[in-house]
Structure formats: structure tokens, C-alpha cells
Write a structure and sequence with these properties.
Layout: H1 6-9, H2 12-19, H3 45-61, H4 66-73, H5 77-85
């Protein structure tokens, strides 16, 4: 989150109005809901993780042991268990 001085971006009339409610404190102004994006949707990270997890589940269904999956994917056995035993996809 980035700090911006209100005097640099807001009209003085609006600053005076806001000061009736809060003064000298940091206030968070969220984006409009239509501006939100799910984590990783812009960078492709979410898609990459979904594909990796699908491959892990497929390998597990094909009798690859959890310990082997952990070594192959450089993850802990607990993380592999969460992936293969979750109800996702």
C-alpha cells in the first residue's frame, strides 16, 4: 500500500469535508470492487499453480508416493497432502 499526501491529490474542499470525520490519521480508500483481481490472475501465477497442482493430483492417482512427489516438486510432504487430499478440481 502506498502513502499519498491528500493535499497533492484531493481538492481542498474535499479535504475540509474529510477533516470533519478524521484528522492526522492514515485512512485507507479501497479500489472499486470492479477493479479487484484475484491473486495471481494478472501475472499468471495462479494458472501456473493450478496446473502444477493438477499434475501432482494426477501423479498421485497414478500411484506415485507422497514422498516422491515432495522430492520431485520441491514441496513438503504436508503440502503435497493438502494438494492431493483437498476437494479442489
Amino acid at each position: 500500500m502506498k502513502y499519498t499526501n491528500a493535499k497533492k491529490v484531493l481538492p481542498e474542499k474535499l479535504i475540509l469535508e474529510i477533516q470533519q470525520y478524521i484528522q492526522g490519521e492514515t485512512i485507507y480508500i479501497p479500489k472499486p470492487e470492479m477493479e479487484y483481481h484475484q491473486w495471481g490472475s494478472k501475472s499468471g501465477s495462479r494458472r501456473w499453480l493450478d496446473r502444477r497442482n493438477a499434475a501432482i493430483r494426477c501423479d498421485f492417482r497414478n500411484n506415485v508416493k507422497i514422498e516422491q512427489l515432495a522430492k520431485e516438486y520441491f514441496l513438503s510432504t504436508e503440502t503435497i497432502k493438502k494438494i492431493v487430499y483437498s476437494g479442489n478440481k
